[in-house]
Amino acid sequence: MLVRPSYVLGGRGMEIVYDEETLKGYITRATELSPEHPVLVDRFLEDAVEIDVDALCDGTEVYIGGIMEHIEEAGVHSGDSACALPPVTLGRSDIEKVRKATEAIAHGIGVVGLLNVQYALKDDVLYVLEANPRASRTVPFVSKATAVPLAKACARIMLGASISQLRAEGMLVASGDGGNADPYAPSRSRKPCCRFIGSAAPTGPPSIRCWARR
């Protein structure tokens, strides 16, 4: 299980527990420190693949900027994990699940602009970890890897432009999107470090972009 205080952001104070005794100890400490705030208890997915998606939505159409597959398993903070764009081990059916879920989330919350969604895939079941209607830390890397200026496109969309209009202008690709990327296209990774494995909290902001060719 994953336990954390309800009032923190970015994974601070999180702990992974495997038995009842550890859970009791965590809740006791948390309630002593802040009795007015509840403790959130979530199921912790072990050995799940984490997936990051940056997308644009104009209120009608969704454009997938990029689908990134994390190297470390889900549970390592996304700011400390490495990932590949496009995904390496995800099949076409997995990518289609991610696309449909991202479109449903974008339309469901009424996004006009950028959207970042983090997923976990385990045993062919796709879980939504979080969805944020904003530019994520991965947007600059996705833009560099795909040669599509997502932030600029987002600004145009927020000012009233449509995705189809931006396709016609050449700002976005004319057909398809980043979800259809060549699996041998350049990839991007953030700095991994073995001591970060198992941590649910971020440990530092530095990021690295790496390129590779077949």
UniProtKB/TrEMBL annotation:
GO biological process assignments: glutamine metabolic process; L-arginine biosynthetic process
Keyword ATP-binding: yes
Transmembrane parts of this sequence: none
Highest taxon listed in the record's lineage: Bacteria
Catalysis: reaction(s): hydrogencarbonate + NH4(+) + 2 ATP = carbamoyl phosphate + 2 ADP + phosphate + 2 H(+); hydrogencarbonate + L-glutamine + 2 ATP + H2O = carbamoyl phosphate + L-glutamate + 2 ADP + phosphate + 2 H(+)
Gene3D superfamilies xref list: ATP-grasp fold, A domain, ATP-grasp fold, B domain
A GO term, aspect molecular function: ATP binding
One GO cellular component, as annotated: cytoplasm
Family statement drawn from the similarity comment of this UniProt entry: Belongs to the CarB family.
Name by which UniProt lists this protein: Carbamoyl-phosphate synthase L chain, ATP binding domain protein
Native organism: Mycobacterium kansasii
